[in-house]
Amino acid sequence: MSEQEKNDEYENEYENICMLCRRPESITGKMFKLYQNVYICNDCMHMTMDTMSQMDYMPGITPMDSVVKVKRDEDEKDGEALEIEEDEEKEGEEKKDDKKGKNAPNSFPGFHNIGFINIGDFGGGDGIPNRQRIKKKKKSNTPPFELKDVPSPHQIKAQLDEYVVGQEKAKKIISVAVYNHYKRVATNTMDEIEIEKSNILMLGPTGCGKTYLVKTLARLLDVPLAIADATSLTEAGYIGDDIESVISKLLAAADNDVEKAERGIVFIDEIDKIAKKKSTSSRDVSGESVQQGLLKLLEGAEVEVPVGANSKNAMVPLTTVNTRNILFICGGAFPDLEEIIKERLRKQASIGFQAELKDKFDKEKNLLSKVTIEDIKKFGMIPEFVGRLPILCALEGLDEEKMVQILKEPKNAILKQYQKLLELDEVKLEFDDGALSAIAKKALEKDTGARALRAIIEEFMLDIMYEIPKDDNIGKVTITKEYIEGNGGPIIEIRNHLLEDHNQ
Q1: 468 within 8 A of 474, measured Cβ to Cβ
Q2: 265 pairs with which residues across the strands?
Q3: How many angstroms separate the CA atoms of 183 and 189, rounded?
Q4: Which residue has the higher pLDDT, 127 or 175?
Q5: Contacting residues for 396 by C-beta, under 8 A, at least 6 apart
Q6: Contact between residue 103 and residue 97 where contact means Cβ atoms under 8 Å apart
Q7: Can you give the pLDDT at residue 25?
Q8: Kindly report the CA angle at 209 between 196 and 396, in degrees rounded to 5?
Q9: Which pLDDT value is given to residue 33?
Q10: What CA–CA distance (Å, rounded) separates 288 from 230?
Q11: 246 pLDDT band (50/70/90 cuts)?
Q12: Domain layout of the chain by residue ranges
């Protein structure tokens, strides 16, 4: 592909961006095209011309026609004519001026510390990397979604069942919420009867599958997904990521296609970390302020977001994204929320004949399933924020049985992954039931949920995966309970053809 063809492709697919203000053509309007595919918007061009026209009237500035200096040598006796010097100074003075920036490349005489840009240095494409380029909106009357293309709740849940073990109620809640959301997007009924967004608040202990559930959902729906960590978000102007950066990540996931990003999914993890601080004397820039900043995103406003960056600055292009069709899912462990729920339930149980039952909540499993909006508020989430997350979805903690199921049942189960790895070396891998139970128990001890399973298996599989490529005689490896508990080793079997040769 020639350079001209590349430039034409950029012009057809991507928006032009002003070299000076970094705004796209959709915001600035039609631009001036300069040398080598460099663009300048109308505003910047006028400001530049106005500035140049005023320079001749600024005091202390040498006029432009004084590039060549004329000096009369009065000391020469022979009366030589005028000597024209082409702006040359003595060697010692040059060094001093270079330090001050007077003789810097592209500098202009009389304009100290002011230089001119050589447009040819950009080499085309106005010097803007592809990750900061914005795709043009497609001129089409067809809606991005059709109602028939939106899977029904039972179809969504059936697909989630293939990848996610347990969490039956959570999967049902999410399936209905997602169906209603994209049905709303496909039919565009919010202009006739305002249908609020089905934003979701997911609660559950660490490692119970919140992030994995959302990733699976986005993959099944074939929509762009952005995963952000609420702990890195701060109020604009403070160290950390701007709140709009979550939309920037979604835009990047959509390959800088604004239309595609406007129907994507944003998952904000660790949302409990931005709860209001109980006692603070300073400005809560990473707590309540972040919640307030997220309100406009959750309710569906047009926001100006940086492209290819986490914060706004002078050298980053900006574009406008409408968030009313973006589904927001917030997730968090909410570690102290169970105590708040217990306190509320005990107050209710301390009346009348139920007074003796108030201690039963100490042994209650899955207390998060009894959560209410009031509990979330008491935890430290402001009412306005909770109000924009109307759907509460509590995930259950994992027990030993669920851990074993996670190991072997999902479509991309951890055991299936390791079996596939060894299969590439023509080795069969098996785990006995005792080994799976032992792995599940070790994972529960770590108290990090399903995340611990991969780390534990990797630890025991390290030596096996190291030795197998060295020995072509190994045909089958069986992981036993004794090996996991440290009382024995795996069962290793040699290949069948070697056994047959030995018997003969």
Answers
A1: yes
A2: 225, 327
A3: 9
A4: 175
A5: 166, 167, 170, 204, 208, 366, 369
A6: yes
A7: 78
A8: 85
A9: 79
A10: 12
A11: confident
A12: 3-128, 147-394, 400-503
Report the topology of domain 400-503: Helicase, Ruva Protein; domain 3 (1.10.8)
C-alpha span between 217 and 161 (Å, rounded): 11
**β-strands 491-494, 69-71: how paired?**
unpaired
- DSSP state string for 108-168: ETTEEEEE---GGGG-SGGG--GGG--BPPP---S-S--GGGSPPHHHHHHHHHTT--S-H
- CA 482, 488, 494, 496 torsion: positive or negative? negative
pLDDT digits over 162-208, tens only?
888 888 888 999 999 888 888 888 776 555 666 777 889 988 888 88
Q: How many CB atoms lie within 10 A of CB 23?
A: 21
**Gap between the Cα atoms of 328 and 350, Å rounded:** 38
CB 370 within 8 A of CB 343: no
Determine the residue type at 228: A
Candidate from 144-148, 179-183, 465-469, 490-494 with smallest mean pLDDT: 144-148
Q: Look-up: residue for tokens 């001093």?
A: 96
The 3-state secondary structure of 444-498 reads HHHCCCCHHHHHHHHHHHHHHHHHHHHCCCEEEEEECHHHHHCCCCCEEEECHHH
Strands 474-479 and 491-494: antiparallel
For 42-73, the pLDDT digits (tens) are 888 878 777 777 665 555 544 444 433 434 44
State phi, psi for 83 to the nearest 5 degrees. -105, 120
- 249 contacts: CB under 8 Å, gap ≥ 6: 226, 227, 228, 266
Domain 147-394 bears CATH identifier 3.20.20.140: no
pTM of the model: 0.69
Place of tokens 């699976």: 216
CA dist 393 and 481 (Å) reads 36
- pLDDT confidence tier of residue 84, bands split at 50, 70 and 90: very low
- The answer to whether 147-394 and 400-503 have equal CATH topology is no
Per-residue pLDDT of 13-28, as tens digits, reads 677 777 777 777 777 7
Continuous segment of H or E residues that includes residue 324: none
When mean pLDDT is compared across 188-197, 287-296, 346-355, 400-409, the lowest value belongs to 346-355
